[in-house]
Amino acid sequence: MTEKILKSADLKMRKTIEALVKELAGIRTGRASPALVEHIKVDYHGVVTPLIQIASISVPEPKTIAIHPWDRSIINNIDKAILKSELGLNPINDGTIIRITLPPLTEERRKDLVKIVHKRLEESRISIRNIRREVVDELKAAEKSKEISQDQSIRASEQLQKLTDSHIDSVNKVGKDKEAEIMEA
Question: Which of 19, 20, 83, 21 lies closest to 51 in space, CA to CA?
Answer without folding.
Answer: 83
